[in-house]
Amino acid sequence: MTMPSNHPHESMLRDAYARFAQGDLAGFLAHCTDDITFRVPGHTPVSGLFSREQFLSSFISTVMDITKGTFRETVTDVVANDTRGVVVAQHEFDRDGKRRHYNTLHLYRILHGKLASFEEFPEDLHAFEEAWGRR
Fold it and tell me: Which end of the chain is more exposed for a tag (fewer CB within 10 A), N or C?
């Protein structure tokens, strides 16, 4: 039996995440619409609704400041169709001298072949908030 081929948006998401992992934020954002929004749940320093500009100017710098550059994201699965993409990932980093980790899901809306919105859904919101520290 032949396995179905991957949807082109799955390949696009994998490329976007590979670029992000390499620190190529411009390469990641090249896959995004100009008006993409990033929604991160909870009551933490990284929670909120961010525009593309805020993603670059405040969100990423907050992540790197809190983790002192130790943040790592491991993609465990990607599925996509014409209008949606889902990335399953593990996040790990050091904060306050302790190793933190949690599993999460990233849901994307895809419009004209570009990532148009992002929402994060941690497997365990309590573990997510504990990892990042509550505001």
Answer: N
- What are the helix (H) ranges across 57-109? 60-67
What pTM, to 2 d.p., does this model score?
0.93
Class of domain 8-132: alpha beta
Mean pLDDT of 57-71: 96
Residue appearing with tokens 């929004």: 37
Counting every residue written for the chain, the total comes to 135
- How large is the average pLDDT for residues 69-94? 97
62-67 CB contacts, 8 Å cutoff, 24+ apart: 66/93, 66/95, 66/132, 66/133, 67/93, 67/94, 67/95
pLDDT bracket for residue 135 (50, 70, 90): confident
According to DSSP, the residues that pair with 114 across neighbouring strands are 111
